[in-house]
Write a structure and sequence with these properties.
binds magnesium ion, 9-stranded mixed sheet, phosphoenolpyruvate--protein phosphotransferase, about 45% helix, globular, 14 helices, binds phosphoenolpyruvate, alpha/beta
Length: about 325
């Protein structure tokens, strides 16, 4: 599939209206890294760190993790890698962790909630990341932040570990970026101070959509019931874009929907300027963006909203067919 888009690989995702979208890739394995060059991604917008915890029957050691993260940074070269701290619980259960009997694991003790309540593993992981960076920039994002306090506490944990490493005489990262994943609707309504403090925000669209519509992303009965291009959801995304713009904080979107060309186009039309997706999606998404006008797509969306459409998909599809006829 990547072969097909080889001719545009090194070209920017610039739409015919002149707007450029940054395309980044999602990764989780060392084996994903060669795709950085192959796909033409600008960087790794989401590095999921769960896999190294899931494939073992014990918590990985700090040294092992630091070595792996260093190899990821080596392979990425000058490109930015956003490491997401451990996002376990819900659908991702560690074999060596006592399984809690939670009635609603997706709404339960997961991700940053575990990291803040039982900080040992998260702090070890943060130390590993700091050691891996050694004189290079380090970008860390915390999953599933639902309120400002959680971001503050997680950020402080990372700053504490930086201080500790400094006292131990270790070489620190040359630059530190600390972000939050916006995966619960509540965070979109956090105080302005949250948006001012975050170095960047990344929308976890898979979780955000499931909580926005109260529709389990794992449940086939309801999974596809609500269209991502539903007017309510797109309007909500635009509000997030606006809040980030007010605080001048960098925003990206890293859920699976970012890798679908029509969804990507509509996200761009709502003001998103950075998308992170599976490497194989970069070509198709770039092709879509380069062939269309984001400004015109926006006009089509506005008309569909005015018409009271439930989803903008039919209107966008019709417009695209007319465009490319
Ligand atoms: C998301 O929720 O959109 C996301 C990127 O994280 P994950 O799919 O790993 O929950
Ligand atoms: Mg998520």
């Amino acid at each position: 599939a990547m072969q097909r888009y080889a001719s545009i690989r090194d070209k920017p995702a610039t739409a015919t209206c002149g707007v450029t979208i940054g395309l980044h890739m999602n990764a989780g394995l060392m084996a994903d890294l060669p795709s950085l060059d192959g796909s033409g991604a600008e960087g790794v917008g989401l590095f999921r760190t769960e896999l190294q915890f899931l494939i073992r029957n014990h918590v990985p050691r700090r040294g092992e993790l630091a070595a792996l993260y260093a190899r990821v940074l080596d392979a990425a070269g000058d490109k930015r890698v956003a490491f997401r701290t451990l996002d376990i619980g819900s659908d991702k259960v560690l074999p060596y962790m006592k399984r809690l009997d939670e009635p609603n694991p997706a709404l339960g003790w997961r991700a940053i909630r575990v990291g803040l309540d039982k900080p040992g593993v998260m702090r070890m992981q943060l130390q590993a990341l700091i050691r891996a960076a050694r004189g290079r920039p380090l970008t860390v994002m915390f999953p599933f932040v639902a309120q400002f306090e959680e971001y503050k506490a997680a950020r402080q944990a990372l700053l504490d570990e930086i201080n500790r490493e400094e006292k131990l005489g270790h070489v620190l990262p040359s630059k530190l970026e600390i972000g939050a994943m916006l995966e619960t609707p509540s965070l979109a309504f956090a105080p302005k101070q949250f948006f001012d403090m975050a170095d960047f925000i990344s929308i976890g669209g898979n979780d955000l959509k499931q909580f926005f519509f109260a529709a389990d992303r794992e449940n086939e009965m309801v999974r596809r019931r609500y269209d991502t291009l539903n007017v309510s959801f797109l309007t909500f995304l635009e509000q997030i874009v606006r809040r980030c713009a007010e605080s001048n904080v960098h925003l990206s979107f890293c859920g699976e929907d970012a890798g679908r060309p029509i969804e990507a186009l509509c996200f761009a039309a709502m003001g998103l300027r950075n998308l992170s997706m599976r490497p194989a999606s970069i070509g198709p998404v770039k092709n879509m963006i380069r062939r269309t006008s984001i400004a015109e797509a926006r006009a089509v969306i506005d008309q569909a909203i005015e018409n009271g459409d439930q989803s903008v998909r039919p209107a966008i599809m019709e417009w695209l067919r007319g465009n490319w006829a």
